[in-house]
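The records we work with from here on pair a chain with its fold. These numbers are not coordinates but entries in a learned vocabulary of local backbone shapes. To see the layout at work, look at the sequence and tokens printed below.

. . .
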Amino acid sequence: MDPQYIQPSFSFELDGVFRVYRKYFKGLWFFCFLVNMILTGWMQWLYIRQMKRVFGSEQELLLSAIHLGVDLLIIYPLIQNACHQLWLKHVQNPHTSMGWKQIIRMSFRNSGKIFVANGLLSLFLLLFFLLFGSIIYTNIDAGNMYEKIAQMIVVSVFLFSLPLSFIFIRFALIIPVISVEQKSIGQAFQRSWELTRGRYWLILGRLILLFIVTVPIQIGWGMLLRLTIESGLWFQWIAFVLTLAILPLFLPLVPLMFSLIYWDERVRKEALDLQFRLKSERGEE
């Protein structure tokens, strides 16, 4: 660790997230809007079509599974990669501007390895969840299969949220590692584990703080959606437009947080800021 390193405050990354977000807001929002538009638009269209009759349990579970799968396997890694590339550009030149077209191009750098690594992490989390969830499922006395699955999910999330979050946080830096250090997939998992060693509770606390900060917006959005959903077809379309416009506001927050955490951990342990400064003085990329 650099002896001159000064430990930042608990809210250091949170402050950095909103500073970077504010500077590149237009490009980031429109990029997230485009990435999320097809999935969210399709989901909202289904709900509008089904407005006059209630979804069955199997339909709800299937739609939720599809939504979660696309979020984890496609949307999150693209946004994480774009946010990290954006952060690196900002570090190299804080006065640079970045439009949505540039952000889209950056999101696909090293995308092959990034999709595979993120898919492996998602698969591991899913298998962990199903392994212990199946035990809970066999001990639930409920009506039909879909009700038992719904109860299993709720109980499993309650019981295993900490171990699942531990696995996610320890391997959450695989995308920045692949993006910056050009590591292989196996090396990226090992490197992320090393960088987050001893930092689980601090990172978890910062993620919780980020969630708390956004709660008022989420509550206001939820109340507005509830009012529109209960008010007829035209208001359904208003809810549809609001969802498309507001959801992209939240999508970059966690990816930006992990980009800053990656930077802070490497500055703390490896003096990465000095390495960047030396490269800049030499005219290197």
Notes: The two ends are 24 Å apart (CA to CA). The chain has a mean pLDDT of 81. Residues 12-279 form one domain.
